[in-house]
């Protein structure tokens, strides 16, 4: 791939003695959606968390190999500062997890943490723009002081997306972002993902083959800690090269 936004090379992850990810190589294309699929426990989330060093928070976890963001190393002595890295590579989790604060303060959290935006008109504009881009502004503009936790599940997840994009990340990692949502809320988030890729590079872990096919341009199939196959989503779903991929996408195992 020419000029990938992020790369992983020989990436391996141990939890204690257990090898969870084995020598994984992957390029993440800029302004595209890359889906990570595979059976439970195959290492998708572990891989995703390596991209913004979220695994650092797990005591037993050891990472080896290289990850880059715009050719800069993510790990090692010359690695990007982890706080800065997480501003550049944001994350949306499986369960919507708004802070027990107002809708406004949820979105303002990142810009305040990183000292990016002045309070007042400038912050108001960032809040509005982020909520608009997350497709939530129309639903919440007249109740920004209410608690984020009082929104519906789907709205909470879009609030978490607004919170992630408020710091203008370059990459957004999504770990099964729709698994706690109903079909209508899921459809909204999927539409949003498609719009967001104009501005951001997106990596999404999903258990839903339909979702991977609908939202992504590239798909990587993981099995037992390795990448078995990676390619254009259409090719992976219509003409996979590997029997294991074929077996998984046709539901023979999972
Ligand atoms: N914090 C942890 N401590 C110990 N082992 C872990 C930890 N997190 C994950 N693992 C193990 O690492 C392996 C990969 O897990 P991971 O969560 O990355 O898989 P996954 O493909 O995302 O699974 P799922 O689809 O079920 O979420 C599994 O065997 C899992 O049990």
From TrEMBL:
GO molecular function, one term: ATP hydrolysis activity
GO terms for cellular component: membrane
Domain ABC transporter: 6-249
Protein name: Phosphate ABC transporter ATP-binding protein
Keyword annotations: ATP-binding, Nucleotide-binding, Phosphate transport, Transport
Database matches in Pfam families: ABC_tran
PANTHER family: ABC TRANSPORTER I FAMILY MEMBER 17
Species the sequence originates in: Paramagnetospirillum marisnigri
Top-level taxon of origin: Bacteria
GO biological process: phosphate ion transmembrane transport
Lineage: Bacteria, Pseudomonadati, Pseudomonadota, Alphaproteobacteria, Rhodospirillales
CDD domains, per database record: ABC_PstB_phosphate_transporter (cd03260)
The keyword Transport appears for this protein: yes
